[in-house]
What we know:
By secondary structure, the chain is mostly helical. The protein has helices at residues 2-23, 26-38, 42-56, 62-73, 77-92, 99-108, 113-116, 118-125, 130-140, 148-161, 165-178, 183-195, 205-213, 220-232, 239-252, 258-267, 277-295. The longest helix has 22 residues, at 2-23.
Amino acid sequence: MQETQDLMLEKKALSLLSSLLEKRQKFVKAHVAEYLIWTGHANLALEEFIKEEKLYSTEPKYRIVIWRVLAQAEKDSIRKQLWLDKIYNAYKDMNGLDRTHATETLAKLKQPVSNLFPEVTKKTLVSSDRNLQTYALWASSIGSDIDINRIREKLLNLMLTDSDTTIRKISAFILRQLKGLDERQWERLVQVALSNRPVDEMYVTIPVTALVTMPSGVNDTKVSLIKDLLIRDVKKYSANQCNGLALALAEKGTRKDLKILEYIMSSGIEGHDPDSDEVADLRASAAYAILKINSRKP
């Protein structure tokens, strides 16, 4: 009985992602494509994004995302390198419009830019654009001799204390990708997460980051408190906050979380236009989380 229910839910999630891939545009479409790639359906993403590349290969920023999807979806090594080379060229263009997107993308794709393009990377690390500089910090750590724990510490400080909310959110996002916090760093993060108030701008971002980055062997009680905190007020969240929760559950959720994820996948979130891009993005994240949780069957 349970297996039948699981299979039905998986089919529902995959059907939604396939539909959104066909019907949605640009960045939402790209997120959906990546969820399909990460759950073993790269062929669907590849076919759709070959079309996107023909339509939008000259559009700054979005074209980087197209190439990122294609680099992940492509199985042929020569064609994969073709898409990577396009992103490399955008990264090296110091006056280009794509530098921030290219830097973030190369970090996501775990490309060792410090080794491949050392001079460009050095300049990017001291850019006057703080968003770009923060992504460059992440990118510079890949495949280099830089002390990754020092970078984690710097990102943790930025996330918890910086005056710019955007930098705080970017730093939190990068920490969720890097993981590897030690217990001292994680305890510091948890202390802030559990003391946050619902009106704080980082109310969801910080506990989500604590959940995703928890080291092995940490206090189960604190993990439960963080999880309870996140789930408790989910119906009051903005679509973006709820999206962050869904993506965290994709990594750390259990079967107990499937009910809320199924609700989000089916209905979106109260108070938001169900046809909007942000709700479509949220529903896609919930579908992805369902597929990931079901792939971790006990």
